[in-house]
Predict the 3D structure of the following.
Amino acid sequence: MAARAAKKSYRAKTYRVRRRSGEVLGDLFRAVCLLLSVFVLTCSFIYVYSCLLSSPYFEIRETSVRGLKELTEKDILTLAQIKTAGNLLAVNKTAIKKNIKLNPWVKNIYIGRELPGRLVIALQERQPLALVEKGGDFYLVDVEGFLFKKLSDDDYVDLPVITGFEEGNKTKEPLFLSAINLVKLLEGSRSYAYLGILSEVNIDSHYGLSVLTEKGMYLRLGTGDYESKLKSLKIVMADLEKKGMTRGYLSIDLADASKITVQRRDGVARVQGDARGKRYRM
């Protein structure tokens, strides 16, 4: 009996070993097949991709540059350094973006492909808002307050000038941003057309902001609440217009909206009042 039991146990163990060996071999075979399939697919992909890169069908036949205002297509294509008759699929978009961004006018770039043979370069240029005087030179500043380019002879711009700017001066930094917003306010609305063309915005750490227009009008605005002060100015100017007192050069102090002071070269110092009880000094 003991011999039979031992023989039976031996057969069972042998069967389990064979079964496990079969399972291992099966797993190994499936793994080899999977690796072989990946290898074949990879080789096929590389072959197809190589064929596409060498195919004349995807040759760059046209480069379209869009979004240009200040820059020219020639400027961008010179910077892009795109290979003549290159393959559209092989274009290194990162390198092209890096080259084009060397031009300070460029803010954002999008590079796309329009199959079979057109490369598209779409630009967003910086929008110049004003000139900033700094260290005896003038720099272009955009609507976000970023000084992006030193003014050169090739820049044909007619923009107001922001003076009194000192980079790194913590006191003037908030005033500089206020000056940027003030220029956008005055230039972006027809409501202030009566002031004439904006010529200069001056930044002063003590007195705040002041404005000079091409009509010779000088406005001292101080700090803060500029839109409200300009609304008060409109009422004052309407009253002066009725009295025929807007001719010549006017200097108007709006730093304190409760007591607006108006000075004119040929004016006489006196106090004027309107029907609402608001007063300003002339």
User: Anything to note?
Assistant: Confidence is low (pLDDT under 50) at residues 267-282. The chain is about 35% helix and 25% strand. The longest strand covers residues 106-114. The two ends are 131 Å apart (CA to CA).
